[in-house]
Amino acid sequence: MLDARSEGYVTADGRQIGGVLMEMKNITLRFGGVVAIKDISFDIREGEIRAIIGPNGAGKSSMLNVISGFYHPQEGEVWYKGQRRPRMRPYQVAQQGIARTFQNIALFEGMSVLDNIMTGRLNHMRSGFLSQALWWGPAAREEAENREKVEKVIDFLEIQHIRKTPVRRLPYGLKKRVELARALAAEPSILLLDEPMAGMNVEEKEDMSRFILDVNDEFGTTIALIEHDMGVVMDLSDRVVVMDYGQKIGDGTPEEVRNNEEVIKAYLGVAHD
Amino acid sequence: MIYREAGDFKTSYAADNQTFPLRGDRLAYYLAVIFALGVVPFFINDYWANAIVIPFLIYTIAALGLNILIGYCGQLSLGTGAFMATGAYAAFKLTTAFPSLNIIFVIILAGVVTAGVGVAFGLPSLRIKGFYLAVATLAAQFFLIWLYTRTPWFFNYSPTGMISMPTRELFGYPVTGASATAVSGYLLCAVFLIASAWLARNLTRGTLGRQWMAIRDMDIAAEIIGVNPLRAKLSAFAVSSFLVGISGALFFTVYLGAAEAGESFGIDKSFLVLFMVIIGGLGSILGSFLGAFLLVVGPVLLKILLVNNLGWPTDVAAHLEIMIIGALIILFLVMEPHGLTALWRTIKEKLRLWPFPH
Q1: Is B13–A91 a contact, with Cβ atoms under 8 angstroms apart?
Q2: What burial letters (b/e) apply to A231-259, b meaning 16+ CB within 10 Å?
Q3: Is the pTM of this model over 0.95?
Q4: Do A110 and B217 touch (CB under 8 A)?
Q5: Which tens digit of pLDDT belongs to each residue from B75-106?
Q6: The complex's ipTM?
Q7: Domain that residue A2 falls in
Q8: Domain-terminating residue out of A141, A167, A186
């Protein structure tokens, strides 16, 4: 159904998906003798929700870490916005417009919710050292402008009431939401979500799903996510990559993946040969 | 009831972001500044200035500096004494080399020199963390003190090995040297403290301060959302050393008048300022004031109480004083690990409702 060279496609619910935004080409990642990712290629297209699924230890999180520049693959290339990405430090990747959340929440516990989300805006803040030290001109103006953007995110994710609460006092579900807010505040081109629904109850999962769909819908943000809850993945995503033991065993729409022999085998636990 | 937020509305983000969002706090702050600059100078005498007020002001600047490094950026340092010495020796070298240079610029430039030295010794922080970094800064402490006591160039080849501050005037009044009065020294230190606190507050409330705190709370996550760890850590070392350098320069020029690196700026200074920061409250501007206040004024008050009021012999009082202060430190840390600032925060919470229970 999908031609690799095509300029996009239309999803089942009628959304127009654009061209290739990010492409992973033959990525191989090794830790010493352990091969975490073995020769995997796939692409992420503009405006789509792309899921990476697989059993535990399949290499999904490693894949996300490769995308966010935390791991550097031994082989293969990462292409982003039509250019090959050189080896970069994670903060440089962030400056290119890739934001992420973490499986085990990585918020700044000592800071307030507002400060956490404001930190997400740092790549949009340019005022110099002196201006900040004297709190004069650009620094003060920039702070107010970015605060306005942050308040929009706060409204969007419905966390107005905890704005000034220190993060360490929040319950788990809200922390997950604040982390999403911090990533969203960066106005990323690609938003990477590492198990956004891990450890949530049904209601919280529903909320989170709604937020993910709304983010994609309202801001047109491209989203790549890892998730264990199959029902959620199949409902949310436009295309799915399935990994098992570091290899790609399936790639396509949720329908295609669901009917894929290899995928069924991996999930039903048929013995590997 | 006394301390209330209700009814204090904000209509802009700038107003919501200000340092003292509550009208009462703002008023108290203005009153404190007016009191410090407009009232105290008329009443201060030599004893009060030299025993309590000037050391308090100078140590507060040092505590502010160290708080930026440890409390805001999470980089442990035991080199404070050596950085104060750097400020002192830089001020000495500058003012003897350029006698006509205004003392204010001498002190600021001494801060700049210390910032440079601080960045150099902050470089290991890019690789090592926590206690290991503390040990690396300990090396700075011993190396720098050794350098300043062994290299005659630093003390202008004086036979005693000490540096001594010549008389310098500001607006026609001597502020340093033998003829300086308590008032002029006090005013110089007070102005520097107010400026330092203002600078520290501005830097910690903006995007640079958030980068420091992000590094402190979780450095890996900070890097992944776009904080350049090199720039964040080294800027914290620079700003911190700048303030510590200024405090060292003031300590030498205004307070001591004559100093020797090993004696005046030893490892005990590093620990003293570290205690101030921890007891006052890590990551808090107010905490730096409270911590310095407790550790500078506490011993003096105890001495007045024991010797003057109870009539105990001086040597007994001196030993008891150390024991009591030590016990107080432990007591504070057990009861309130987040320092005096947290205590103040609790009091504010209580005052919000007082005298009603709910």
Answers
A1: no
A2: ebbbebbbbbbbbbebbbbbbbbbeebee
A3: no
A4: yes
A5: 999 999 999 999 999 999 999 999 999 999 99
A6: 0.89
A7: 1-97+188-273
A8: A186
